[in-house]
Specification:
654 residues, alpha+beta, 5-stranded antiparallel beta sheet, flat
């Protein structure tokens, strides 16, 4: 069974890059070789593939090259004409290579050739460099004089084996051999590999665990066991275990102590310093954080120097944090608000003070739209006023990921009400839990969408620097979960067309779990500035779509639509021009429903009258006034139905 090993040896890769690039290479190489079994291995210094069970054979393909018609190939003496001679010369063929084929209703001469396609391994050899150059990298670098050769970090070696032989892939000046490298600190350097089956064992003997899942399992077990010995459990932000597993080739777990004075800091500050900046694990006991940390080293901690280095770095960072915390508490948040005029939000949208003032106005309008009481309105204004003040605190300037949280901490310490303080933190969450947090988060996202899109910052397919797609998603989440049917146009009376188009496209993405035809039917007529209304209609129609009553509603709509001129708009319906009882009855029901139709299923009341109208009334009457009046009645019915959806876009299987 054929087996292929490809290893790309590099300088230490960023943890976030390794797996995506590995998956990309696995997909691209597998597409060429079509193996029955594939294995992706990676560490910070290497990305490797082991593939087996693939056929490495060239294929023969028959090719028929059509020439001129037979009658144009020979003269009256049966000698080749210039047309035939030219055809033979063009394809380097001889007269005996010719065959005759039926084509286009006549007899033609042709040449039959058998072409051999390259073997899959040959295709891979020729395309490997291009595949690697197209890897999905957020940033790439050059390390040679070549302007073409780029990667996330310098590539130092290639190891590639096809069964027992070297597979000579190339990247720039590098050509693959049968050597790889062990651990940077714990091995003797180069390792010779003579078959793909030897690869993993050779690395393990040189202190490299090539399997990411095994490193992750080992790290998780060792960290949890160490925490147990310290009478606690690891406090790790989401993704920390996975990130650390991509920072080491062979994990060694160590733990150290933290000076107890640093426990006066808020827990999240300590976790941010240790986990986000040093990739260390905090230890949590029953009553809060314990004065310990757990680290995962890529080197054997033999003489305590590694631990001392960790403790030195941590102490310095926590000393800074403690100083910032003490200094920030001396200044009230409200004193920082005027200074937000010095912080730019966007060149075309003003400063953060301008944004703060806009937020204060928006939360007031939201309170009006939602019918909230005066106490809530005052608290909402207060939370909006303080919402961006923590940007000017020393802690947030140093640790910007604590924005919002530090506003909450400082606001509580300075005597602000719990709801107001919590809103300062929750404004950055996609699913805030407290009412003020929801109002502030909604106002913040809507302000960003309106001001930034008005400023021309429309996201593209590959770029969304202001995270406007995420902002729209947060708006939809808040409105949907709280059943808030607000009209965004009441907050921004003259929104740009770009914002309309953007909201509609994001609504379509948000509603992707529902049938595409239902979503299209609703968004065709529903105002995207009423997102909750659009979402409710989609859910309602998706639930009703297969019910017989609803199918009758769709049928009635399509019957009306079929006779209406395409661009006819609803006009005044004049009762004095009505001649038939059926049209008068239908008109009376339409008027009643226009005033009180509260649910889409109420439209079913028109089904019987619409059928009777078409069965007994000649719409296209000879009298122009009567004809136009009947068409206006049908246009009003269409308009009534279009409050909910364009029912013509719904798809039913025949």
């Amino acid at each position: 069974m054929n087996k292929l090993l490809i290893e790309i040896g590099t300088e230490e890769l960023p943890a976030s890059v390794i797996q995506p690039v590995g998956e990309y290479l696995r997909q691209e190489v597998s597409q060429i070789l079509k193996p029955t079994k594939e294995e992706l291995l990676f560490t910070p210094r290497r990305i490797a593939l082991i593939l087996e069970g693939f056929e490495d054979k060239s294929e023969e393909k028959e090719e028929i090259i059509l020439g001129p018609p037979k009658k144009a190939c020979y003269d009256e003496n049966n000698n080749p004409t210039r047309a035939l001679i030219g055809f033979l010369q063009k394809h380097s063929a001889r007269p005996e290579d010719l065959i005759e084929v039926e084509s286009k209703g006549g007899l033609y001469v042709a040449i039959r050739r058998f072409l051999s396609t390259p073997k899959p391994t040959q295709i891979l050899l020729e395309s490997f460099e291009d595949i690697l150059l197209k890897a999905p990298l957020p940033k790439s670098m050059r390390w040679t004089s070549s302007h073409r050769i780029r990667f996330s970090r310098p590539i130092r070696w290639l190891c590639a084996l096809y069964n027992e032989g070297v597979f000579p892939i190339r990247f720039g000046r590098l050509t693959a051999g049968n050597r790889t490298k062990g651990h940077r600190f714990l091995s003797d350097g180069w390792l010779e590999v003579n078959h793909p089956d030897q690869y993993k064992d050779k690395l393990l003997s040189a202190y490299v665990i090539p399997d990411y899942r095994e490193r992750l399992r080992l790290i998780t077990f060792q960290v949890e066991e160490t925490a147990k010995k310290l009478n606690g459990e690891p406090d790790a932000p989401e993704g920390l275990y996975e990130e650390v597993a991509n920072l080491v080739e062979y994990p060694f777990v160590v733990f150290g102590e933290i000076d107890r004075k640093f426990l006066d800091l808020p827990d999240r500050v300590i976790i941010t310093v240790l986990a986000h900046h040093q990739r260390f694990f905090c230890v949590r006991g029953k009553d809060g954080l314990l004065p310990y940390f757990i680290a995962v080293s890529n080197n054997r901690p033999v003489d305590g120097r590694i631990l001392k280095g960790y403790q030195k770095v941590i102490r310095a960072r926590l000393e800074d944090a403690l100083f910032f915390y003490g200094e920030d508490l001396k200044v009230r948040l409200e004193e920082l608000v005027p200074k937000l005029s010095e912080v730019l939000f966007h060149p075309k949208a003003g400063s953060m003070l301008d944004k703060t003032q806009r937020l204060m106005g928006l939360v007031e309008k939201l309170c009006d739209l939602l019918g909230l009481d005066e106490d809530t309105r005052e608290k909402a204004r207060r939370s909006a006023y303080l919402s961006k003040a923590d940007l000017l605190t020393q802690m947030v300037r140093e640790l910007d990921e604590l924005q919002g949280y530090m506003g909450y901490v400082y606001a509580k310490a300075q005597g602000e009400e719990e709801e107001v303080a919590l809103a300062l933190w929750e404004q950055y969450m996609s699913n805030p839990t407290n009412l003020l947090g929801k109002l502030l988060a909604l106002a913040d996202r809507l302000d960003s969408l309106y001001t930034l899109i008005s400023a021309g910052e429309m996201p593209t397919s590959s770029s969304d620097p202001y995270a406007l797609r995420r902002s729209a998603q947060t708006v939809f989440n808040i409105l949907e979960k709280n059943h808030w049917d607000i009209n965004i146009k009441e907050l921004f009376p003259q929104p740009p067309q770009a914002l309309t188009d953007f909201l509609k496209s994001r609504l379509r993405a948000h509603l992707e779990p529902y049938p595409y035809d239902v979503v299209s039917a609703v968004l065709e007529v529903c105002d995207p500035y009423r997102p909750y209304h659009c979402m409710s209609l989609v859910k309602r129609i998706a639930n009703l779509k297969e019910e017989e009553k609803f199918k009758d509603i769709v049928q009635a709509y399509r019957r009306v639509l079929k006779i209406l001129p395409k661009d006819l708009e609803a006009q005044e319906v004049r009762e004095e021009l009505m001649r038939e009882e059926a049209e008068m009855r239908l008109w009376q029901k339409v008027k009643a429903l226009e005033g009180c139709c509260s649910d889409i299923i109420d439209l079913y009341a028109l089904k019987e009258d619409i059928d009777e109208f078409f069965d007994s009334v000649l719409v296209m009457d000879k009298d122009e006034g009567i004809r136009n009046n009947r068409l206006s009645l049908l246009a009003r019915i269409k308009e009534l139905f279009n409050r909910y959806a364009d029912f013509n876009k719904l798809v039913y299987e025949e």
